[in-house]
Design a protein that fits this description.
By secondary structure, chain A is of the alpha+beta class. In chain A, 26% of the residues lie in helices and 34% in strands. Chain A has helices spanning 43-51, 93-103, 108-122, 137-149, 167-184, 195-201, 219-224, 229-234, 268-276, 369-375, and strands at 4-12, 18-27, 32-36, 58-63, 66-67, 78-81, 155-159, 187-192, 204-209, 212-217, 241-251, 254-259, 262-265, 282-288, 293-309, 313-320, 323-330, 343-348, 354-357. By secondary structure, chain B is mainly α. Chain B has a single domain (72-300), classed as MetI-like fold (Orthogonal Bundle). Chain B is 75% helix and 1% strand. The chains are: A alpha+beta, B mainly alpha. The A-B interface holds A 51-53, 72-76, 78-80, 82-84, 86-90, 99-100, 103-104, 131, 133, 147, 151, 157 and B 194, 196-197, 199-207, 210, 214-215, 218-219, 221, 299-300, 302.
Chain lengths: 384, 302
């Protein structure tokens, strides 16, 4: 029940390695925020600084309005679920869950009531007398979450809690976390390297790389308005198609994107945003999501290399004059021959083309968010 | 599964080569451990003199009966128990304390501490003992010198020659030589405690003491058990110190069973009698170890 404010957070390890540079983040009360990025991006370090398990080199951390830089973890009133679960092996499940309450000297009957209540929610009542060793991975995961839940913490931290589970269990637990969230009703910080988890769980997503925050936004925003090449490539499955060495052309006051000789007249909002930035013609990397490609007509051409039938949609891996292009086509829309070896024409809608400056990798429209939002259309229907 | 699919000849060959690899150490084990053990039990039923003067005579349990009427043995037994009861807990507690202070230090500093405490273990016990003997010396020993200098004692004390102090002095030396191994073991055990457990308990609201006793202590229980057992056995078998410093005196006040066995068997040639004591000592150690295992097992069963 509290907000977390992070100002200019920085972590330099002994030996001079900077793990986190200048993270700024305002997490609202009861918000579910997901930190996502490849390994080594500083997301876990950031979380551990919030938990108090790492010293803060520079910057400020406020939990519930209170400066917490030098507050011991035990006094921060946070709960954390660890990647390894970190269940106390010498205690039973019951004692694991009761541990924090016992330390707080909560009366026994109250502890008992709370533990049993949470165990009921998580469906682990029958395992309360067991030691963690006698549990499966999924059950241990539940106990770890239960141990955090009994606390009613101000902030609920989760450090890659699902990464030790197999794919099926992971999907199941992900759904359960979404369900749990409505019951627990507190502020969440969740670290993962899995973009699917980030997209499905987060109210907002913080995308980090090399210790820097690249973008903070709702799942819709980071999907539709990636600020740079990294975010565009990291979010979305399959990965966005990038066409290197393309051109943004300003011709008679109108902007066009030139992709492999095909010329796309950009959409109204793109025109406006580019004009506002006084953008000149330049070299760009054009990004098109696999879901945003339609086949059968258009100025671009590709030869199908692999055809993966997924049921409701078909994933096509194609070769377009040296560019590898992935397309996701809903099966119902399929009217063209897309068997392996076939050559197809394809295109996209100009408004769905992401334009990245070749030199900096930044999105020409969305990088400067303030000016972009002024020109932005209402968010489209997201396709995941 | 794999064995079933192997041919019989192959299984046989594997078995044979397995035993061949075991053979060298097996020979030593049987020759120097198993055979002497059996001989020890066997001769304890004889009035044996190792062939000196006369043949061994079978006397049944007479040696054992005599033992418990021998005041010197009973005194040695008492001394041994005092040594064990004092030195085992002190060794464990002290080494745990030192280890928990040094295990988080940086590599070189930690190594330096480990070296210091381990030095008496690797130094020859004769050398260590000679130094201590010199420090305890009645006339020019440093203890008397410092004690008088600080005004703690009025006149020189003959530390090792005084019944009141001799056993305590022995125990002190024993402590210095026995904390090395436990410290090294504890340092590595504490270093191996899963750090995420410690972090989890910190987040759960535990202070440093609670983290130690609720999380780390149960985690290092197997090491504690091992240390208890080896320290107990070492204390029971305290011998070289006694032989070099006091030879059991004054007035048997520093006799231990181990020393008394040596004294009876090799000084007085009461070979069978000494072996009977050896058997008793082995039984006592076995009982102690079993109890320690039982007690600690209750805590480590995960």
């Amino acid at each position: 029940m509290s907000e977390v404010i992070i100002k200019g957070l920085k972590k330099v390890y002994e030996g001079g390695v900077t793990a986190v540079h200048d993270v700024n983040l305002d997490i609202a009360d009861k918000e579910f925020i997901v930190l996502v990025g490849p390994s080594g991006c500083g997301k876990s370090t950031t979380l551990r600084m919030v938990a108090g398990l790492e010293d803060i080199t520079d910057g400020e951390l406020y939990i519930d309005g209170k400066l917490c830089n030098n507050v011991e973890p035990k006094d921060r009133d946070i709960a954390m679920v660890f990647q390894s679960y970190a269940l106390y092996p010498h205690m039973t499940v019951y004692d694991n869950m009761a541990f924090a309450l016992k330390l707080k000297k909560v009366p026994k009957p109250e502890i008992d009531k709370k533990v049993r209540e949470v165990a009921e929610i998580l469906d682990i009542t029958q395992y309360l007398d067991r030691k963690p060793k006698a549990l499966s991975g999924g059950q241990r995961q539940r106990v770890a979450i239960g141990r955090a839940m009994v606390r009613d913490p101000k902030v609920f931290l989760m450090d890659e809690p699902l990464s030790n589970l197999d794919a099926k269990l992971r999907n199941q637990m992900r759904a359960e976390i979404i369900k749990l969230r409505s019951r627990i009703n507190t502020t969440f910080m969740y670290v993962t390297h899995d973009q699917t988890e980030a997209m499905t769980l987060g109210d907002r997503i913080v995308i980090m790389k090399d210790g820097f925050v690249n973008q903070i936004g709702t799942p819709g925003e980071v999907f539709d308005k990636p600020v740079n090449l990294f975010v565009a490539g990291f979010i979305g499955m399959p990965v966005m198609n990038f066409f290197d060495n393309c051109k943004l052309v300003l011709d008679g006051g109108v902007y066009y994107a030139e992709i492999r000789g095909a010329r796309f007249k950009l959409d109204e909002f793109q025109q406006k945003a580019l004009k506002q930035n006084n953008q000149q013609s330049c070299d760009i990397v054009a990004g098109i999501r696999p879901q945003h490609i339609s086949v059968g007509q258009g100025d671009l051409e590709a030869k199908i290399v692999v055809n993966e039938m997924m049921g409701s949609e078909v994933h096509l891996h194609a070769d377009s004059n040296g560019d590898e292009v992935v397309m996701v086509i809903p099966t119902v829309d399929l009217k063209t021959d897309v068997s392996m070896g076939a050559t197809v024409k394809f295109t996209t809608q100009p408004k769905l083309i992401q334009l990245f400056d070749k030199a900096s990798g930044n999105n020409l429209i969305w990088y400067d968010k303030a000016s972009a939002d002024a020109c932005a259309p209402v968010c489209k229907n997201y396709i995941f | 599964m794999r064995r079933q699919s192997m041919s019989k000849a192959l299984v046989r060959r594997e078995t044979i080569s397995g035993y061949l690899f075991l053979l060298p150490s097996l020979i030593f084990f049987v020759g120097f451990v198993v055979y002497p053990m059996i001989m020890c039990v066997y001769t304890s039923f004889f009035d044996a003199t190792m062939g000196k003067d006369r043949q061994d005579i079978f006397i049944g349990l007479q040696n054992y009966k005599d033992l418990f009427k021998d005041p010197a043995f009973l005194k040695a037994l008492k001394n041994t128990l005092v040594i064990v009861i004092v030195s085992v807990p002190v060794t464990c507690a002290f080494s745990l304390w030192v280890s928990s202070a040094i295990y988080k230090m940086r590599g070189p500093i930690r190594s330096a501490f480990r070296c210091i405490f381990y030095l008496p273990v690797v130094t020859g016990s004769v050398a260590v003992t000679v130094v201590w003997k010199w420090m305890y010396n009645n006339y020019y020993g440093i203890f008397n010198y410092v004690g008088k200098g600080l005004g703690l004692i009025e006149k020189n004390i003959n530390w090792l020659g005084d019944e009141r102090f001799a056993l305590g002095c022995i125990i002190l030396i024993l402590l210095t030589t026995s904390v090395g191994q436990p410290i090294v073991l504890y340092v590595s055990a504490l270093g191996n405690v899963d750090h995420s457990l410690v972090e989890a308990s910190q987040v759960d609201g535990a202070n440093d003491m609670q983290v130690f006793w609720r999380i780390k202590w149960p985690q290092i229980m197997p090491t504690t058990l091992y240390i208890l057992v080896i320290t107990t056995i070492n204390s029971f078998q305290c011998f070289a110190l006694i032989q070099l410093l006091t030879s059991g005196g004054p007035n048997h006040s520093t006799d231990t069973i181990m020393y008394y066995i040596y004294y009876q068997a090799f000084k007085l040639y009461h070979y069978g009698y000494g072996n009977a004591m050896g058997v008793i000592l082995a039984i006592i150690i076995a009982i102690f170890s079993a109890v320690q295992f039982k007690l600690a097992k209750a805590d480590t069963s995960y």
